[in-house]
UniProtKB/TrEMBL annotation:
One of its GO terms (molecular function) is metal ion binding. This is Biotin carboxylase. PANTHER family: ATP-GRASP ENZYME FSQD (PTHR43585:SF2), FUMIPYRROLE BIOSYNTHESIS PROTEIN C (PTHR43585). Residues 109-301 form the ATP-grasp domain. It comes from the Bacteria. Keywords: ATP-binding, Ligase, Nucleotide-binding. The keyword Transferase does not apply. Coiled coil: none annotated.
Length: 408
């Protein structure tokens, strides 16, 4: 039996197709409204998937009835839950101590710094005065973000200590950190290791300011870095150093983000022990030759996987990129057409779809209304096509302003 934790964002994934040997031997804890698909022997739905006690309680009940030999989860919110369940059930995989290091951005940076990796200056935040004190010691922009957040939610970039007072209710109710703003190109490395042996480490560079770009309503994306570029090997090296610094198990997958500064320094942004979100799995499929979630599901569940085929594919794959258009305040009036020559063009919206201020404020960086993937053996041509398709799709959207927005 395999116990699967399925958040709302994991709804619709083809677990039974990815794990055909386990059809009828899968059990799941699901967020309310999430469709786990076919092949499950039992499904328990949790009304509030943010409630750790509810999710863990449902999982323990399932485990007591079915005795699973693996726990599988894809969402950031489930990293520590799955680790805790593995520990209680005596199953292999990420343990609670390592899961905490991948979730808590303070602990993460402490371990990385102790191992010699460059990290931004940082400090825990319990009160706005902590931010003001930090800014007095580190003049300039700072980033204030949840210690265990994801998807750029709850992130604030401050220019002056006076702005900290406006975050009083937020930072006193949720664990936060403050760190210096690093001026550099944001890269991500999606890496997979099985039995202590690397399978793949794909280096990509976000456009603009990466995941923070969506706060400006600007489209953004990511494209793989030319393997001939020396920064590629350096980022891969830093990623494996980071994995070891966080005392990771021999089998692990990570989505690591780094800043590359103008003078070539590589500075850690953060790292997660999971597959990257949004369109990243779709882009990676064109590099790995398999959906990374499919790959990791089989690895985590101890099922046969042709890892050498993945290694060979990565060595010969074309360059790949994704681009996405985020939501904005208002109502969708017209939808774009897919540009010619793109892959996996996906619309996650419809005419009349309304983004109210409340809904808009809760958006994540991966909440694209449209995204697509481009591949090209020519790295320069890939960049040109990325820009042109972004212009076409952005121009294809038409929005109505909401009355509440006009009134504001």
């Amino acid at each position: 039996m395999i116990l699967v934790l399925i958040s709302a964002r994991g709804a619709g994934l083809p677990f039974a197709r990815w794990l055909p040997e386990m059809c009828g031997q899968l059990v799941a804890v699901c967020a309310a409204g999430a469709d786990p698909g076919e092949g499950f022997a039992e499904i328990v739905t949790v009304t509030d998937y943010n409630d750790d006690d509810a999710v863990l309680g449902a999982a323990r009940d399932l485990a007591g009835r079915h005795r699973p030999n693996a726990v599988f989860a894809l969402a950031e919110v489930d990293v520590e839950r799955a680790a805790r369940l593995r520990g209680e059930l005596g199953l292999p995989g990420l343990d609670t101590a390592t899961a905490a290091a991948y979730r808590d951005k303070i602990l993460m940076k402490e371990l990385a710094q102790a191992a010699g990796l460059l990290v931004p200056a940082f400090a825990p935040v319990r009160h706005p005065a902590d931010i003001a004190d930090f800014m007095a010691r580190h003049p300039g922009h700072v980033v204030v973000k949840p210690r265990s957040g994801s998807g750029s939610t709850g992130v604030y970039v401050l220019d002056s200590p006076a702005q900290a007072a406006g975050l009083a209710d937020i930072v006193t109710s949720t664990p936060y950190e403050v760190e210096e703003f690093v001026d550099g190109a944001v890269h991500h490395v999606d890496a997979f290791r099985v039995g202590g042996r690397p399978v793949a480490a794909v280096v990509s560079r976000y456009t603009g300011q990466g995941c923070l770009e969506h706060w400006t309503d600007a489209p953004f994306g990511s494209r793989s870095v030319d393997t001939a570029d020396p920064i590629c090997a350096r980022l891969v090296h830093e990623t494996w150093r980071l994995v070891d610094a966080l005392v990771s198990p021999p089998t692990v997958c990570v989505h690591a983000e780094f800043f590359v500064t103008g003078n070539g320094d590589i500075v850690l942004c953060e790292v997660a022990a999971r597959i990257g979100g949004g369109p990243i799995p779709t882009m990676l499929r064109h590099v790995l030759g398999i959906d990374p979630r499919h790959l990791w599901a089989r690895v985590e569940c101890g099922l046969p996987t042709d890892l050498d085929a993945v290694r060979e594919r990565v060595a010969t794959a074309p360059h790949a990129a994704f681009y996405g258009v985020p939501p904005r305040l208002g109502r969708v009036q017209r939808l774009p057409d897919a540009p010619p020559g793109v892959h996996d063009f996906t619309l996650n919206t419809h005419v009349g779809d309304e983004w109210s201020p409340a809904r808009y404020s809760e958006r994540k960086s991966a909440d694209f209304l449209a995204f697509w993937v481009i591949t090209d053996p020519d790295f320069t041509a890939l960049g040109r096509r990325l820009v042109s398709t972004a212009e076409q799709v952005s121009a294809g959207f038409v929005w109505d302003r909401l009355e509440s927005e006009d009134a504001a």
